[in-house]
Amino acid sequence: MLGGAAMLQPAVALANAPQPESGADCEVGSKAVPFDGKHQAGVQTVPAAHLNVLGLNLRAGVGKKDAKRLLSLWTEDARRLTQGQNPLGSLEPEMVQHPSNLTITCGLGSRFFDIVDKQDQRPAWLKEDLQFSKDQLKPEWGQTDLVLQICCDDPVMLAFATRHMLRSGVDYVQQQWLQQGFLNAPGVKDPKATPRNLFGQKDGTVNPRSEDEFDQQVWIDGEDDAPAWLEGGSCLIVRRIAMNLDTWEQLDRESREIAIGRTLDSGAPLGQKDEFDQADYDKTDEYGLPYIDARSHMALASPPSDKPKEKLLRRAYNYDVPPNTGSEQLSNAGLVFCCYQKDPRKQFIPIQQRLNDGDRLNEWITHTGSAMYAIVPGTQEQGDEPYWAASLLEG
Amino acid sequence: MLGGAAMLQPAVALANAPQPESGADCEVGSKAVPFDGKHQAGVQTVPAAHLNVLGLNLRAGVGKKDAKRLLSLWTEDARRLTQGQNPLGSLEPEMVQHPSNLTITCGLGSRFFDIVDKQDQRPAWLKEDLQFSKDQLKPEWGQTDLVLQICCDDPVMLAFATRHMLRSGVDYVQQQWLQQGFLNAPGVKDPKATPRNLFGQKDGTVNPRSEDEFDQQVWIDGEDDAPAWLEGGSCLIVRRIAMNLDTWEQLDRESREIAIGRTLDSGAPLGQKDEFDQADYDKTDEYGLPYIDARSHMALASPPSDKPKEKLLRRAYNYDVPPNTGSEQLSNAGLVFCCYQKDPRKQFIPIQQRLNDGDRLNEWITHTGSAMYAIVPGTQEQGDEPYWAASLLEG
User: Fold this and answer.
1) I want to staple B367 with a disulfide (CB 3.0 to 4.6 A). Which of A120, A344, B135, B149 is the partner?
2) Do A186 and B186 touch (CB under 8 A)?
């Protein structure tokens, strides 16, 4: 168990910055990500191995006072759980001894602002009806009033933390969905290396990495079209993307690489050598054909030359769950695609519109769920924002 | 990726023995458990963090020749995958670079012996209809012709290996169910320590640990009532056990400990100090009441004094999946309880009969799935048993 000292560390601006470089983590169980800070943890934090995203609705009759109580309770619980400390009301101190880089990140859906009577504080971009023409959205993965993104390197701690948050909020919220995902286990590979998804594709090469890039792409500031209380926050979009491995695997490697626009082994743009080499869309092969297909996933996901700000943080996890009974599908797999940005109107939406319209990968992927949330700013235990969304709800 | 040397290591008797003591594993990705040996890996092997158990049925029209082809193909695939080598026909060498203690263990259900016309070689204990009075078995977790127990410390490698085995066998078998489970991640805690389940209970304290104990409880030999071809094999029972955390959590700690018969913190028998202390069923407290309730889980799971051989290997994994849509249950959790033994008539069945009839834990747990398999002996790439069940099928 962590000593008391870990709890007493002051919250600092770097609280949620990426962790130190390391090829593998030998004591992952005792690692705790600071909870308080300018931003919430779980966004800029290097993704832990396991993900539970909970979509929750406020119960009928819950109003502003209850919402304050809920977010205050949850903040206290998350602050303790992430530091390996037993939250109030828990009879199971043994279950929190291995925080394992646990993060718990809270976001608000559009209807939350109606319920707490703060319509004027709702960001203009927060919509309920994000749907593209090729989407096959299922209501069971749809919009909710609240979201908790819970990440942890240990699946047992993750299960306990998820359950504790649900139990703690049970008088105020009802769970609508739980989306579970995974990346490589701790100690398997360098946690800073780009993870592979189940298509074998390195997924997240162009993600922001520096503080500046996060400030430019992810964290809301005074320059952005958002209410002042949301400065330091972000916008999360959760898309569930089914990946048809059965038909994908009928392709040869070259066809797979053409659809993606990158090589499978190194992740380099086609025609280049290394993962982080710049793509050259004009480069042609010996027959005069472009290396990179204009309808490849990479080409369409990249910002157009006149809109260099169309970038965002991909924080996607794989899912692989049992196929429906009697199905002849070999697997039921895909991505819980969480992405973070300042303003979806300038980032996810135009990017996804291009992908929806032209991406070669659409033959093998289907968006089946969509929800959008305002990720509230970070908290300070003794400061102006003692609990999630305090400055929204106290105002 | 592993070098060629790892592949060339001779299969030795210790192949599947528990791994060296270590508190945490810094290079878990490159760890490979030897595939060939007297026994299959994945039984005596320290459980890896993640589990996929696949229940599969032979397709209509598949006969002995096809079954041989299937098991031969699967053995080759498993032999390569577990050593971090790309199996034949896979276009994704990048996906097998981190074997992460992968094991793939094969078992045969009762109907398999009918299909290959080897009824006389079916062990007498291999039944299809294991049901106790309190069971609420669902057909979707029922008996199948074949089972693959796939364990791995890395969930990405696990997903790839599971998928490859399914694809490789697709002409011969259809997946009936997939049961997924987890333990602590590598690096979180000592992998030799007894894991906790989601009741917070240390689960598996009395498991066999020494070679002698495995020989006495798990591995079939000439003394047991089983056909000769099965020597070196075992019997696997897979029970799906739902655990009602919502009502369990209404208990105070003392009531939980009474139901279990052990303390929650150390796992010691009530009235004792350490996890591995002998339980004293006659010991009474200051009021003359026994420390250990005769209907506690521990008391009923322990071998009666006149039947000291009623022991087995518990190799249980936690599951925690989304509740059904609209359910007011906070969680849908429990155990994928895999247990190994020489002869279920002398081990699992009498133990479970006692638990079914009297276990206090029955108020919070429900058995919802049951299946039984003959775990075939280990293989030798260049020996008499080049593939799973060769001596059964070649005879």
Assistant:
1) B135
2) yes
